[in-house]
Design a protein that fits this description.
globular, 16 strands, 9-stranded mixed beta sheet, single chain, alpha/beta
Length: 368
């Protein structure tokens, strides 16, 4: 028997799905199939929006509408994707959500998978909980992927359990706003649950899943994330996983209901602009154009560490205790391809500040 976990927003949700599989089901040699988007932010993929099967070589068919992403698969340049590396390092099967045909297409994919796999369980997993958003919240930044998977799951004739891990950790929907919808805690993640994905967390850029893992390891404080420096509180709620009634989530999510009959991604985007006032893919398009105009900054160790000292001093004055390597990469005006080099430089220079997978800025830096 096989388990099916749908990673609601792709990216880090796929890593969290692997973590959750081990925590809830014991891993069982990776018999879970994780259905996920190939949608990495611009640090990894310079092309805006999600990737489809046509953007890869080496995919393997599972059903007529669903493709497996094996370790040997490769994104076709200039696109990028973390999925082949996930497939190489984790024992799970990663299947690709193809959003080109809207919610109707994803519904068809799910129905084919359910018929083919006959899974013993189906979980829809979202880290942070923005799948519960109405669509008009001022803090909402990336509702499209979650709304699409929710809309599709709501139309599949099979029992699907909606799980919210780390409520509030993505910074898009305050914990107070969703608390009334959160059902029972089905799991509180621990450091042991993080171990199966610990190697992945070192290189994967997901901030929300990184904070989920950090809180499971006991990290507490305030973490600054994203290019805008959004502060996220790391509390005892961080490592919890709640069950939520899927129908209630669907009734709350205006975008998910609006896009249920969409047959193209363009339709989904248009309705997102109408319901939410924006499309996150438009934001990526604009940022991609801006990034192309930026001159790359050389990664000079002395200069970087000096800039880091200044950043940390300012962050401490804001009450910040931790940050992510993605945030540091952007704050120091480095390119996405320099993120890993920056990470290695900082860990080698100041290993005591590595609160894996986060960076601790609570201690006074050596040169301060």
């Amino acid at each position: 028997m096989t388990r099916l976990i749908v990673a609601a927003g792709g990216g880090g949700d796929a890593v969290a799905a692997a973590m959750l599989d081990a925590a809830l089901y014991g891993g069982d040699n990776g018999r879970a199939v994780i259905l996920t988007y190939a949608w990495d932010r611009l640090l990894i993929d310079p092309v805006p929006g999600p990737r489809g099967p046509e953007n890869f070589t080496g995919l393997e068919p599972i059903t007529p509408a669903v493709w497996k992403v094996p370790a040997e698969a490769r994104p076709i340049a200039p696109a990028g994707s973390t999925l082949p590396r996930l497939a190489a390092e984790l024992p799970h099967t990663f299947a690709l959500i193809d959003p080109r045909h809207g919610a109707e297409g994803i519904t068809r994919q799910l129905e084919e998978l359910v018929s083919h796999l006959e899974p013993q369980s189906i979980d829809l997993l979202d880290v942070g909980g923005d799948v519960l958003a109405r669509g008009d919240e001022p803090t909402l930044k990336s509702p499209l992927a979650d709304a699409l998977t929710l809309a599709a799951c709501g139309q599949v004739n099979a029992p699907i359990r909606l799980l919210i891990a780390g409520p509030g950790l993505d910074g898009e929907l305050p914990l107070e706003d969703m608390r009334g919808m959160l059902g029972p805690v089905v799991q509180t993640l621990t450091a042991k649950d993080v171990e199966p994905v610990s190697s992945v967390l070192g290189w994967h850029p997901s901030e929300a899943t990184g904070m989920l893992a950090a809180t499971a390891r006991g990290v507490r404080g305030t973490c600054e994330v994203r290019d805008a420096g959004l502060p996220i509180r790391l509390t005892d709620e961080g490592p919890t996983v709640h069950e939520v009634d899927l129908d209630e989530a669907l009734s709350c999510n205006n975008l998910a209901r609006a896009i249920m009959t969409t047959a193209t991604l363009d339709e989904v985007e248009a309705l997102s602009r109408e319901v939410c006032g924006f499309s996150e893919i438009d934001y990526e398009r604009n940022k991609a154009l801006w990034l192309k105009q930026q001159r790359p900054v050389k990664l000079d160790a002395e200069s970087v560490l000096s800039q880091l000292d200044q950043f940390e001093a300012e962050a401490r004055s804001r009450g910040v205790t931790h940050t992510t390597f993605r945030r540091l990469t952007e704050a120091l005006n480095l390119g996405g391809t320099q993120r890993e080099a920056l990470r290695q430089l900082l860990i080698n220079s100041r290993p005591e500040q590595h609160a894996a997978p986060l960076w601790s800025i609570t201690a006074t830096s050596p040169t301060s």
